[in-house]
Amino acid sequence: MLVVDFGAQYAQLIARRVREARVYSEIVPHTMPVGEMLERGPAAIILSGGPSSVYAPGAPDLGPELFEAGVPAFGICYGFQAMARALGGTVERTGSAEFGGTDLDVVSGDSTLFHGLPVRQSVWMSHGDAVTQAPAGFEVVARTTGTPVAAFEDPERRLAGVQFHPEVLHSAHGQAVLEHFLHEIAGIAPTWTIGNVITDQVEAIRAQVGDARAVCGLSGGVDSSVAAALVQRAIGDRLTCVLVDHGLLREGEVEQVEQDFVAATGVDLVVVDAADRFLAALAGVSDPETKRKVIGREFIRVFEEAAARVVADSAEQGEPVEFLVQGTLYPDVVESGGGSGTATIKSHHNVGGLPDDLEFGLVEPLRTLFKDEVRRVGLELGVPEEIVWRQPFPGPGLGIRIVGEVTADRLEILRRADAIAREELTAAGLDREVWQCPVVLLADVRSVGVQGDGRTYGHPVVLRPVSSEDAMTADWTRLPYDVLATISTRITNEVREVNRVVLDVTSKPPGTIEWE
Ligand code: XMP
Asked: What PANTHER family does the record tag this protein with (predicted)?
């Protein structure tokens, strides 16, 4: 089914809630012509909320055609008002805006939307205008003190709408209302499952790749790992994965991919040990953005060289590599407004044997999935839990967690301190509560300490545990004191070069999550 995005931040949430109801959903912009929406043959259409008043100049408008096509439709907030207006109802600025938690009264005994739900329930409102008269043919099934028409439905035409936001958790029975629309009013069976996603994707990948080969860059993170596991399921050893070990990964991460991931999925893996090359390129660099540029540049070169070797070997065997696998997720697709299907890897003349511009077709088996769905696909495919649940880790790795120049010794110190912090967070069962917990080495700072009988002059490390939804904003996580104490004691006992552990208690903004 389609979610028509009227520009509110809620469209992705609606699409996810629909999938939780086991109905596949996709988001389309409200600027898409109605004819194009209908051509896709949707089982139903949901109109999302939006920032505008239906009377504001330039407000997205809807004609009645969409509702006359016989496709079930559900309006939410702005979408509810747009629907009311298009079908001849009245929308007015009542002067009593509602924002936040509001009591809703169900006023119809035989409402399908609210069937079996409490007659008074708390819902989340966010609107200035209100529907004051429902269009002909609709029954008004709920109201609030400020909104006489808070929900309406016409089961015969399979149309319904609500003024509140059923997709947010603050609407106590929102998911049930949404499911009543999907399953009862629109009559869509809840058949979309992760198992189906895997079967469909495997078929699609086979059809796309045919007899050719594909190559995939693995980072050790969840997206590239699950994408690789899916493609491996589809084309077996015609997929080669390349893991560039830039020496900036955390303790045990390369081994985790080399051993556990390969054992679980059977992918053909090439690990390129390029640690020395990255260290040489990073020598003398302490500016964060320069570090990122150097690491990014070297990464592409090393990956290209490795891919060139894979391409050359396969060409010798008469099986050309024509595809590149990428772990692009649905939110990236929505936010970038679509996206094309080819990637050009630019080859540098001084490195390796790729043609100047080698065009690969892109295989993006996660393009329709949200992160939580990717994790479920991964678990179903047997990808190890440590990878499926791995917290976000930046591409430049520990390179941007050493404030100062990156050297082999400093990396070793940080790796040991980081491993201890991760071990203790896991032991305390806090992995899922913490979004991520960078450990940062202040390599150019020294402070006086006393360890054993002697005076020391060592480095501080910073613990940066944060809680976040999407990394755009974050708060520092209030870790239990005893967990902090254990981490601090262990790091200062076990990592001789560190004599101080400090806690970063800054939210984002103003601080970023990483220190560099
Ligand atoms: P900041 O530090 O900007 O980080 O609050 C937000 C999120 O992005 C990650 N991050 C990066 N990821 N390359 C990446 O792939 C980078 O250069 C980079 N810098 C920050 C960070 O770990 C956090 O999840």
From this structure: GMP SYNTHASE [GLUTAMINE-HYDROLYZING], GMP SYNTHASE-RELATED
Q: What is the pLDDT of residues 234-276, one digit of tens each?
A: 999 999 999 999 999 999 999 999 999 999 999 999 999 999 9
Query: Considering the entire predicted model, what is its pTM?
Result: 0.86
What residue's CA is closest to ligand 1, atom 11? 394
Contact between 159 and 89 (Cβ < 8 Å):
no
Give, using CA atoms, the residue closest to atom 14 of ligand 1: 394
Q: Tell me, in angstroms, the distance from the centre of ligand 1 to residue 326's CA.
A: 19
Q: Answer yes or no: is the C-beta of 514 below 6 A from any ligand 1 atom.
A: yes
ipTM (interface predicted TM): 0.99
Phi first, then psi: give them for residue 506, nearest 5 degrees: -110, 135
* The one catalytic residue among 127, 165, 173, 459: 165
Q: Are strands 73-76 and 90-106 parallel, antiparallel or unpaired?
A: unpaired
pLDDT at residue number 340: 47
* Tally of CB atoms within 10 A around 359: 12
Q: Name the binding residues for ATP.
A: 219-225
Give the residue-averaged pLDDT of 44-66: 86
Ligand 1 centroid to Cα of residue 329, in Å, is: 17
Buried b (16+ CB within 10 A) or exposed e, 115-141: eebeeebbbbbbbebbbeebbeebbbb
How many angstroms is it from 392 CA to the middle of ligand 1?
Answer: 8
Which tokens is 418 given? Answer: 């980081």
Pick the closest to residue 78 from 51, 55, 46 (CA basis).
51
